[in-house]
Amino acid sequence: MLWPRTVKDRIKSGDDRELVHSYPYRSACPSTVWTGLVESAGAEIYLGGYTNYFFWTQVPRFADTIRRKAEAGCRVRFLVGDPDGEVTRQREVVEDVALTVSTRIRITLEHLERLGAVDGVETRVSDPSDAASHVGLSVFRFDDDALVTPHLARLVGHDSPLLHLRRHGVGGMFDRFAAHGEELWGRAAVRLG
């Protein structure tokens, strides 16, 4: 009688089977996880953080990796907030940190401009009507893995929790968060150089 209970307790078989790992803080997720997911993605990289700033410091040689991935046929998408938007200004007041939200967005956009035009790399700015939803939930997708950060009220992204999800079928948590990202992407404005 002990063995079935032990197996049931150790093997995820219900709704939580898509949860690979949870971290109390995004910053607690090792950089090797981020780097490994970026490196292993072959078809899709979707970076739907409001600033996406930390990728340039968290993943070694990130720009070179993104270029290489896109040239190999991987679709790479960056969704960022509007650096001049009202939600961005409100968030800066809430966070009250020296490295402002708008500055972090502009740093990402500057890095993307330095990357230049690369087939397969797309950048969009979230629609103003979606900005509050975007700033409140970051979705980072790497093929069938996703790292999701639900942002807590007054905390910067790195202080909010993070969930590592892996897709295991239709309609699970992975698909729900991926659909959120796709919805924001679909209404976002294309960013041209």
Produce a short descriptive summary.
The protein is of the alpha+beta class and 193 residues long. The chain contains eight helices and eight strands.
Give the rounded overall mean pLDDT: 90
**Major sheet size, sense and barrel closure:** 8 strands, mixed
**Alpha carbon gap, first and last residue:** 64 Å
Structural class: alpha+beta
Strand order of the largest sheet: 1-7-6-5-2-3-4-8
Strand content: 15-25%
Number of helical elements: 8
DSSP helix fraction: 40-55%
Radius of gyration: 17 Å
Q: Report the order of strands and helices.
A: HEHEHHEHHEHEEEHE
General description of the model:
The chain is an alpha+beta fold and 193 residues long. It has eight helices and eight strands, in the order αβαβααβααβαβββαβ. It has helices at residues 2-10, 31-40, 55-58, 62-71, 86-95, 101-115, 131-136, 173-187, and strands at 19-23, 44-48, 75-80, 121-125, 137-142, 145-150, 162-166, 189-190. An eight-stranded mixed sheet has the order 1-7-6-5-2-3-4-8, with helices on both faces. A hairpin with a 2-residue loop joins β5 and β6. The longest helix is centred in the middle third of the chain and has 15 residues, at 101-115. It is globular and about 40 Å long. The mean pLDDT is 90.
